[in-house]
Amino acid sequence: MDLRHLLQTHHDEIVREWVDRIRTEVSENYSSRPVEEVTLTILEATGAYFAVLTENDFSKMDVFIEKISRVRLDVGFSLSEVQGAFELYRKVLTPILIRELDPSLLPEVLQKLNDCLSHTIRRFSDYFQSLHERAIRNRAEDLERLVEDRTRELSESEAKYRTLVEEINDGYFVSQRGIVVFANKAFCDMHGYTMEEVIGRHYMDFVAPESSDEVSRIYKERMTTGEARDQYVYLRRCKDGRQLYSENKVKLITYRSETATAGICRDITERMELEKQRLRLVELENERKTIALTTLNQLMVTLSHYLLNANSIIGGMARRTLRAGSKGERLASLEIIKEQTHKTESIIAALKKVAAIRTTDYTPESHTLMIDLTNEIENKLAKTGQKEISK
Q: CATH classification of 1-167, choosing from 1.10.490, 3.30.420, 3.40.1350, 1.10.510?
């Protein structure tokens, strides 16, 4: 079953399970929303995902993200709640894909699904940062007009800032001159440190040695030119020594009147493992094709050997028959020709048996099995010889 047919066939099932899980697994906010409202929202989201996965059309998803962001944030939903709701789509769809999708299409579709979810999260991250920056700009304008309220408004901004970043699932950090001056709990948890252990440390302490040169280069480019790429993948270093794949989305901001780097740090270990599995499947498919070509070559060599021998003998006996001086000599030659003809028929029969054999699907735990054509031919020839003797 291809992806489009699968999504259309299981549309109602996906919507129903997504609605049920979003109202029971995400948060009390979702549980308290009317089921009709949640269902209409999920129907629209499902349609947007369908456009992305089948047509690579992100326009509907972008429109939906902007709409749902305004609606949910206006009524008090946190970013982590909305992100959790979107993540449920992957949890609902993945078992269906694994169970019913053509295995050869699975790696590509899983990659599409991950890209779609990554795009959704990035859009929400961008919205969060723009919302924060807009709030800071508004407060800065107020501070210029109302000097007496400066301390109070800065305190309120800091409190709201902390509240927002603590609500997201991804790690969030701010560094100045390479030192972490702010981090949310998610950032601390994903590295295995407490808040007290993180604040004041150099950011490179949280980068694995394998990625330190690249991350340092990107940081220097950003601070000197302001044009370094804002999103990159690297290995983070955890307190327990583990090195896990992460994705950073960073940009320059002004924090407490100084230039700083703010970033969202996301764990992508699962995504990288899926990519490794996809590459392994491609490698296994190439191995299977190589085995098939080798098998074909062996078949041709084996057939050529037996058929050429039989043909050579038949030709020699035919010429001998023409030269025979007696009926007995001719009959002897014809008997040999008949014998070789039977052998040729046995070879063809063995080949038909080989052609009828189908190998099982290739998996990492199985091996492509090849029939021993030489052995089949020898068995057929032996049986042919026994029949001749019995006659």
A: 1.10.490
